Amino acid sequence: MSSQTAQQAQQRNGGREAAVLDAVPKQLLIGGQWIDAEGGATLEVLDPSTGRVLCEVADGSPADGVAALDAAVAAQADFAKTSPRERADILTRAFELLHERIDDLALLMTLEMGKPIAEAKGEITYAAEFFRHFASEATRISGGYQTAPAGGARFLIARQPVGPCLLITPWNFPMAMGTRKLGPAIAAGCTSVIKPAHQTPLSMLALGQILIEAGLPEGVVNIVTAERSGAVMEPLIRSGKARKLSFTGSTKVGKILLEQCADKVLRTSMELGGNAPFIVFEDADLEEAVAGALAAKMRNMGEACTAANRIYVHESIAEEFGRRLGEEMGGMTVGRGTEEGVRVGPLIDQAAQDKVTELVTDAVGLGATVVTGGSAPEGEGYFFTPTVLTGVSPQARMGTEEIFGPVAAITPFSTEEEVVAAANDTPFGLVSYVFTNDLRRALRVSEALESGMVGLNQGVVSNPAAPFGGVKESGLGREGGDTGIDEFLETKYIGIALA
Ligand code: NAP
């Protein structure tokens, strides 16, 4: 998009954008109060479609982090005593407020993160569903009563909140990654300190405001926005006051945090990076497979841990598949996410745009053919033109690294054995996609793929009612589903001697 068009768009939306930005709190939320960071420090929030500053928010210090954790610790005992119904009601009210304010929240998210408004609304809806789901789960926390095998004694099995939690979220889904953690934490009766990514603090701050209005007691959720994430979080992890860390982000940072958590043996949930294979067999419905690839690739401009990273298409249909996907992706309008008709917004920052450019250059250097796109457009903002590459060499860097951009990399294959081996030849294991109309093959391949989730003839797996998570270096634990709340509960066994 030209810079002139970007400026026009901002003028058009100017009044409303300014109002939405003004309305969001810019301070830290600690103990139920909005307060400045130590020394009044602030960090800049940028608009990735222009690179310009949107606003400033508090830049929390290590001391601010400690104050936030102290507030969470102070609130823990009382919050654990609240009834499941009270906690469910708070989540339900927050669910309703998210829907009531969806237009403003979506605009806020688009401004700080870049995704088109329609996708931002989709994320708010998805985020709210975690609150609705865990409102129900709060009232279903169950225990057990059992006779000891030898008779006499009885076992009482109780579920209790883990205790104060540290929650760290990434920039790519600024609201949903927050509610996916806060929903089960609140439902289970845990207090928390949550730290959003420095690029996208605004959605989390708006969520904090909503939780207060929904009646959440003071200190139950504390929000620390900070530029120096490691310096702020490490002392909290090592403090011995927090009992759990739930992290969504890169595998590289996840490994550092796991080491830190070992110090005080914290419970951990790790939602880490992916390198999803997307396999299209020769018997698949081609139209469905192209639509699935479009969804799995282009959701969030390709900036999703679930994004189809390696697209393996049977050699008999690879050319046709590439042509059709190229037509679809080549026809997508790129631009500022606030503009009507835009389907592809900017990448998050300059580093992301540079990395995608490098990966494409590397693949083309190794013989890939560019069907459409292939480079970043001229002008301001961190855009990248939707790109389809065919004949991508298995040696290309994008075979082993997350592309995290709107680039579909197609590699042909000839046999089922070969493609399953290639799909599993990665340290990651978050999600895989399989397109086939052969029932036996569908089950055989789904079972053989080393990933926590499989999309069978569908390009989107995320659903708050399903257990989301990965195996291998993609993570530990599951979020959502009927086990998601377990991550925030301890099991206590009480042995009862009967006379
Ligand atoms: P990231 O660099 O790992 O950052 C994630 C979060 O961790 C941010 O809040 C970041 O804060 C914080 N952080 C960074 N270094 C830290 C440290 N030393 N100590 C404590 N916190 C630290 O990941 P990202 O680039 O933002 O996000 C993209 C990655 O997330 C991709 O790999 C993607 O696959 C993964 N992801 C996974 C899932 C899933 O469910 N499996 C979902 C979404 C994304 P600052 O950025 O402010 O430093």
Description:
- This protein is an alpha/beta fold.
- The chain has 14 helices and 22 strands.
- It has helices spanning 3-23, 62-81, 84-100, 102-113, 117-138, 176-188, 202-213, 229-237, 251-262, 286-298, 318-330, 350-365, 416-424, 439-448, and strands spanning 28-30, 33-35, 42-47, 52-58, 144-147, 154-161, 165-168, 192-195, 221-223, 244-248, 267-271, 276-280, 308-314, 369-372, 387-390, 407-413, 428-429, 431-435, 453-456, 471-472, 475-476, 489-496.
- It has a seven-stranded mixed β-sheet, with helices on both faces. The protein has a six-stranded mixed β-sheet with strand order 9-8-7-10-11-21, with helices on both faces.
- Helix 3 runs antiparallel to helix 5 (117-138), helix 3 packs across helix 7 (202-213) and helix 4 crosses helix 5.
- It has two domains: 3-273 and 476-492, Aldehyde Dehydrogenase, Chain A, domain 1 (3-Layer(aba) Sandwich); 276-427 and 431-463, Aldehyde Dehydrogenase, Chain A, domain 2 (3-Layer(aba) Sandwich).
- The structure holds NADP nicotinamide-adenine-dinucleotide phosphate.
Quick description:
The protein is of the alpha/beta class. It contains 14 helices and 22 strands.
What is the arithmetic mean of pLDDT? 96
Q: Tell me the radius of gyration.
A: 23 Å
Enter the CATH topology name of the largest domain.
Aldehyde Dehydrogenase, Chain A, domain 1
Structural class assignment: alpha/beta
Strand composition percent: 15-25%
Please summarize the sheet with the most strands: 7 strands, mixed
Named CATH architecture of the largest domain = 3-Layer(aba) Sandwich
Identify the CATH class of the largest domain: Alpha Beta
